[in-house]
Every structure is written in C-alpha cells, then in structure tokens.
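Appendix C: a fully annotated inverse folding record. The material below is reproduced so that readers can follow the format used throughout the book. The structure is listed first as tokens, followed by the designed sequence.
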C-alpha cells in the first residue's frame, strides 16, 4: 500500500511550489495600497451591483434597490434613491436621475439629483442641472448647466423682522412732499 510522506508537504501558508504569498507590511511602499485593494475587493464582494451592458437600450423608468452600472443607453428616468449609479465610459443617458451618489464616466443629458455626491470624471459629460451636497468635476470633464449644493438638513435661516415705518401722510395737492419721509 502507498503512503503519503508527511515531510514532502509544504509548510502552512505556502502554496504547492513553496512560495509564500506576499503579506502587506507597514512601512513598505505599496503595502497600504495592497491592503486597501484587498479590503476593497472584500467590500465589492458584499455589495450588489447590477450591470447594464453596452448593447442594451432602455426606454422608460428604471428603479432599483442595488448599485447600478450603465454601459448602454437609457432614456427616461432613473431612480436609485439609496444606491450608487455609475455611468460607464460607453454609457449614454438621456434621463432625469435620482440617486444617492452618481459617478459619470460617459455622457448624461438631463438633471441629476443626488443625496450625497455627484462625481464627473475625466472624460465624463453632463448637460443638465445638478442638485447635490457635494459635486466633483475632474479636469477634462464637460459640464453645462447649474449646480445647487444644498445640504441635506441645513436649517433655513429665520426670516428677518423688518420694522414697518408708518407711512407719511400723502402730501396735500400743491404742497411739496416732506424730505426724509
């Protein structure tokens, strides 16, 4: 009978070739980025993201309760109140957009309302008005419209009290009006 030799087995933490995978170390250039990349992948695995491909054309209303990436064409209305909408580099949108956050790498024609942030990246293009508490427009991006950066729960200033002065009695016909009245 054949028996496996335990001395040939690689030590724990090594692959079959005997190479140990790199471990991010503090103080080593690139280690923080590598650690952040691993953490980012873990985060992406837990998020639900729906993709609309380049060849897809949607006309009408688009609602969802997941993050959405659009690479195709959408005409109408997009509503993702609590989620992130990403318009990819090939995405072409002609719609009114309501989302938590909007990232634009493609083209948007229409108004955007975001509860957190609108980010127009390098080659992104927006023709329309933006209402969001934070707006970022990268160098090389195209934007034509207005920006309203309202904060979510900013208290409205109280109406100032204007003291009403009694109106001066009208001047009698033929008499000059009093100065300072």
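Designed amino acids, in order:
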């Amino acid at each position: 009978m054949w028996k496996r030799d335990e001395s040939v087995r690689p030590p724990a933490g090594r692959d079959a070739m005997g190479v140990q995978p790199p471990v991010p170390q503090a103080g080593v250039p690139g280690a923080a980025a590598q650690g952040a990349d691993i953490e980012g992948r873990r985060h992406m695995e837990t998020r639900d993201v729906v993709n609309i491909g380049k060849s897809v054309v949607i006309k009408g209303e688009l609602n969802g309760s997941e993050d959405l990436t659009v690479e195709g064409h959408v005409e109408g209305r997009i509503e993702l109140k609590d989620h992130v909408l990403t318009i990819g580099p090939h995405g072409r949108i002609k719609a009114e957009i309501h989302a938590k956050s909007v990232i634009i790498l493609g083209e948007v024609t229409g108004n955007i309302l975001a509860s957190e942030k609108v980010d127009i990246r390098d080659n992104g293009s927006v023709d329309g008005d933006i209402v969001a508490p934070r707006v970022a427009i990268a160098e090389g991006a195209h934007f034509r419209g207005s920006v309203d950066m309202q904060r979510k729960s900013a208290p409205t200033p109280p109406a100032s009290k204007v003291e009403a002065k009694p109106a001066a009695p009208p001047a009698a016909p033929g008499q000059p009006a009093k100065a300072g009245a």
